[in-house]
Each structure stands twice: as C-alpha cells, then as structure tokens.
TrEMBL record:
UniProt protein name: Winged helix family transcriptional regulator
Cited InterPro entries: OmpR/PhoB-type_DNA-bd, Sig_transdc_resp-reg_C-effctor, WH-like_DNA-bd_sf
Gene Ontology molecular function, alphabetical: DNA binding
Residue intervals of the OmpR/PhoB-type domain: 24-99
Ranges annotated as spanning the membrane: 149-170
Length: 269
C-alpha cells in the first residue's frame, strides 16, 4: 500500500521507502520500527493512547516497549518527514495521547481495478459426445509404482537439502573482532572504531560527536564512555545513519551496560 503524505512525499508500506512524487527511485528508507509506527498511525487516525501504540507496534511484535523508545522513533519520524516539508506528522494532543496530524492530507494510492462488463459473456455450448465415441480409461499406478515415486521424490528433496547446507557452510560469515581507540578523555571519554578513524579526520569526528551529544542532551560522567559511529552523509549535510552508545564501565567490563541511540535519517547542521 502506498500513501501520498501532504502532497510532498509518497510512503510505500511494503518496503518503508519514501519517494518524491515526480521520481521513480526511492529517496530514503525508514527503519522497520519507524515504518511500523507510521503505518499504525495511517490506519488509526483517531486519538490513541501511548500504551495502545506501545502494545501494537512493540509488544505484539516481540519488541521491548518503553516510552523512551516511543519518543525516539516519534522524533525520528518528525525529523525525516520535515525534510520533505511535512511538519509534525504525529502530534501530542494531551497527556498520554497521540494522533496523526489532522491538518496533513493523507491520500492512499491504489491500483484501479478493471470494471466488470455490464452483461456476462454468453456460455460456450459444447456438443455432448455420442455413445459410440471411444473413452480413454486411466489405470492408477500400483502400490509398488507409488512407492517408487515417493522414494524418488524423497531422494530429490534430500539432495536439495544437502546442497543448501553445503552452500550455507561455504558462505558463512566469520565473526570479526572490532577494535576501539580512545580519542579523547575531556570533556567525555570517546572511543572510535578503526573503520571510523580510517574514514574521517579525528577533529571532524570529535566535532560531530559533540553536536550529536548536545542535541541528545547527554552529560559526561566519570566511569562512562561513548562509542560513536555515523555514515559519511552526515559530513555532507545529508541524511544518513547514526549510532551512539553511552556505556558504563564496571570493573573489567568496559561495556557492562549501554544506552543506545539510533538515527536512520540524521541531518547535521
């Protein structure tokens, strides 16, 4: 199902893509959870409680629900659609209640069905065979023949299964150890992966981290450190994917407990 939102962007619920009306290629894509959240509000335009949303989008899909997760994905949806000049797609009506913005026009896009003909086609008359016509008699296979068929079919299925197992073992990805390097200790202890250090300058990496940390209003505390990763599009002032983790250090465990933040449509200043 596809929806034109505010006349600015087309949302495809089958793959969570966002496409401009005059384009054929998708412009961006929502995460699975963000797409499920938007799809729920498109089908429930009435006033709904936060508990209803958490149950239908998170709990019923086997995900851990929390108001923090809901706020994070609401903010993500609003920022993503604001990029297409659609402001405040989901509004907070009152304490504990949310609603799809009634001021935004949502137009479902469906494939037009072929109209039925006014009169049904005339039935085709087929002459009945004469009594003297020959009748072909089909003799069912014997029990031994049926057993051979089943044996042959089972052998083919077993061969296919063995080929699939061999193919899976040959193409199985091995685990890769990710190394982290401490970039700075002031004002926050910041860790960077080797991939990030090879792809971006340290000064730009530290600057972008501070921008994200201040937007999330995260303070620096002793006994904690941050892991920061983002795609290259953040530097080019475009929409990109971003990951930030604030982890507590407990004895010999540097990542004993982490608060994780994901953004699939982050846009830097």
């Amino acid at each position: 199902m596809r929806y034109k939102i505010g006349g600015r962007v087309i949302y495809d619920a089958t793959d969570n893509t966002l496409t401009l009306p005059d384009c054929n290629e998708p412009d961006s894509q929502l995460s699975i959870t963000a797409g499920a959240l938007l799809y729920y509000f498109l089908h429930h335009t009435e006033l709904v409680s936060r508990n209803q949303v958490l149950k239908k989008v998170w709990d019923d899909n086997g995900l851990t629900s929390s108001n923090s997760n809901l706020n994070q994905y609401l903010s993500m949806l609003r920022k993503t659609l604001r990029h297409y000049d659609v402001d405040n797609i989901i509004v907070s009506v009152s304490r504990g209640f949310l609603q799809l913005n009634p001021d935004i026009v949502i137009e479902p896009l469906t494939i037009e069905s072929v109209p039925l003909t006014e009169t049904p086609p005339e039935p085709i008359s087929t002459p009945l065979p004469s009594i003297s016509s020959k009748v072909k008699v089909v003799i069912p296979p014997s029990g031994e023949t049926q057993a051979r068929y089943w044996y042959l079919a089972g052998s083919i299925l077993l061969s296919i299964a063995m080929l699939l197992v061999i193919f899976t073992l040959m193409n199985r990805n091995t685990l890769r150890v990710m190394n982290f390097t401490r970039i700075s200790a002031q004002p926050c202890e910041l860790l960077a992966s080797d991939e990030m250090l090879h792809s971006v300058a340290t000064a730009i990496y530290r600057k972008n981290f501070e921008v994200v940390r201040q937007r999330l209003n995260l303070a620096c505390h002793k006994g904690e450190h941050f892991v920061f990763f983002y795609s290259d599009r953040l530097e080019t002032n475009g929409l990109g994917r971003l990951f930030l983790a604030r982890c507590a250090i407990h004895e010999a465990q540097p990542f004993s407990y982490c608060d994780n933040y994901f953004y699939y449509a982050w846009k830097s200043q």
